[in-house]
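pls design
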């Protein structure tokens, strides 16, 4: 998307149309039901402009997003992105620099290293995924 097109959309307040891709962001009403379909229960999750923030890079390492009877979905790994000619390894640092607008910068990130959601059972790694389209059913991973 060209910068001019993006600026026009932003000026019209349509950033939700850009962000809501159902992979990294989805509606906050839809998100718990979606996890439930896959056999997971959601604990708490971040929201921005009435959207559920799903991408692991927006969460601190160790954050527990969801759980089943036998396992948890936990944020794991490191991130490294370039935005506005600056390298960031922590989204909280982006919040310090850009405020809540940091979420709006996501479409323009140059992603070098991304965090993931790890499924752990009894503290042991079972499987990892980076976005909703890769999330396994809890039964699929015997959790």
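designed seq:
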């Amino acid at each position: 998307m060209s910068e001019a097109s993006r600026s026009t959309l932003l000026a019209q307040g349509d950033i939700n149309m850009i962000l809501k891709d159902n992979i990294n962001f989805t509606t906050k009403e839809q998100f718990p039901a979606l996890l439930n379909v896959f056999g997971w229960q959601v604990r708490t999750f971040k929201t921005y402009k009435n959207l559920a923030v799903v991408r692991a890079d927006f969460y601190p390492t160790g954050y527990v997003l969801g759980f089943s009877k036998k396992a948890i979905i936990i944020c794991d790994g490191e991130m490294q992105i370039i935005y506005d000619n600056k390298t960031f390894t922590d989204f909280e640092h982006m919040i310090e620099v850009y405020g809540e607008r940091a979420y709006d910068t996501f479409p323009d990130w140059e992603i070098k290293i991304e965090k993931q959601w790890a499924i752990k059972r009894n503290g042991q790694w079972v499987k990892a995924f980076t976005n909703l389209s890769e999330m396994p059913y809890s039964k699929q991973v015997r959790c």
